[in-house]
Amino acid sequence: MDQKNIIILAAGQGTRMKSKRYKVLHEILGRSMVDHVLTQVEKLDPQNIVTVVGHGADEVKKALGDRTQYVLQAEQLGTGHAVMQAAELLKDKTGSTIVANGDTPLLTAETFEKLFDSHQQLHAKATVLTAKAPNPSGYGRVIRNEDNEVIKIVEQKDASEAEKRIDEINTGVYCFDNQALFDALSQVTNDNAQNEYYITDVIEILKSQDEVISAYQMPDFDESMGVNDRLALSQATKVMRNRVNKKHLLNGVTIIDPENTYIDVDVEIGSDTVIEPGVYLQGQTKIGESCMITTGSKVVDSQIDANVTIHSSTIENSVMESHTDAGPYAHLRPQSHIKKYAHIGNFVEIKKAVIGEHTKVGHLTYVGDATLEDHINIGCGVTFVNYDGVQKFHTTVGSHSFIGSSSNIIAPVNIADHAFVAAGSTITKDVPKHAMGIARQKQTNKEDFWKRLPLAQNPDWN
Which residue of 62, 104, 108, 235 is most buried, as measured by CB atoms within 10 A? Predict the structure, then answer.
């Protein structure tokens, strides 16, 4: 089998993005653009992947890790110059080499595989990935002869009127015979207006040597989209969103309004789950079967088991076991774990806490740094006070306990199982089993207090 090599060009700064972030690190649905490209080419199981870095080299390396080898293009002197930097790692390799751009996040493994196959079947020294463009203006045109062979690639500024009418465009992705690529690169010069070394010159050099130059025309023009500014980034995001949502729809997920539902590429969703408009599912989130996620919900890097309902709430780095619910307007902050049949009600915030099975935290409550066991009822307006200004402290509440409304639980305390906290209490000591903790001042009624008020003299108020 022909050896497969990949070169990803990711050295450009991307000034048109007008951003402090390097272009290829801008994200689309939870993954940087260059990561999208790398993820797809990895599916081809290539023997070598080399990423050419330049601006933001350390950040790109940090983002991609050891999934690829790296070479540095210290000066950006054109696409040909960028590929030349990989010579040290690849020039002695055999097989075929794809050159792809790190700012083309929509290309799929299937397209790369078909490019490889076409290249091999035609015994070509170079194969250009092309597409039919609805509006080819600005793209390099692919010029073929009467035998459908590629003669040359003509840039827009150099094209004749007849050539400008051609709608087959160069996507900037190529497959080369590896040896022929680096032999031709040694002949490329920068004798042009930009004083740069162009990868397209390799095509002309190989053609002048009577080598076979072919083209594989991909069926979906959208895949070829390169991202150079924020407008293109938004357009690519829309294409990717439609692709991701279509996958989930075909897998049995109900997405009521796909145009207004935002699901990252790595999210997993079980069948018969219903997702309303305006929902964001991000990161490595996994959602089970038969869940309901309503408008305005955001779930990030969380595990949601089957038969869970999330009402207009935010879930971050947390776990909701089966048959639980949250919201409306609940917030599960990182390291929250909601066990089976637990209920998290409206305007409840949970942070780094375990909520046991069948426990109910109904409304207007903060639970931080706590373990609540099973079958507990937490009344309205309870606050687990976990921070003294310097350290965080933990509270444990045993099973079958009852915490009355408007109580403050001052950590660290342990409330035993089958214990009670009277409404309005501020608890600073442990409460033993079967006991009721009361920590509030006794009520005093001031008789005839009304008579002290100016309104007492107003007949309309008496």
Answer: 104
pTM of this prediction exceeds 0.85: yes
The answer to whether residues 214 and 257 belong to one domain is no
In a domain, 458, yes or no: no
387 annotated ligand binder: yes
Percentages helix, strand, coil for the chain, rounded to the nearest 5?
A: 25, 30, 45
DSSP lists the bridge partners of residue 410 as 385
User: Is 87 annotated for ligand binding?
Assistant: no
Q: Let me know if residue 132 belongs to a domain.
A: yes
pLDDT of residue 1: 61
Q: Write down the catalytic residue from 337, 363, 375, 394.
A: 363
Whether 337 is catalytic is no
Predicted pLDDT of residue 2: 80
Task: Judge if 288 and 212 occupy the same domain.
Answer: no
Closest by CA position to 98, among listed 216, 32, 8: 8
Q: Which of the listed residues 206, 224, 242 is the one where a domain comes to its end? A: 224
- The pLDDT, as a whole number, for residue 440 is 92
Residue 39, in any domain of the structure: yes
Per-residue pLDDT at 460: 81
Q: What are phi and psi of 61, to 5 degrees?
A: -60, -40
- Is 140 annotated for ligand binding? yes
Is 252 flagged in the annotation as binding? no
Range of the domain at 398: 230-437
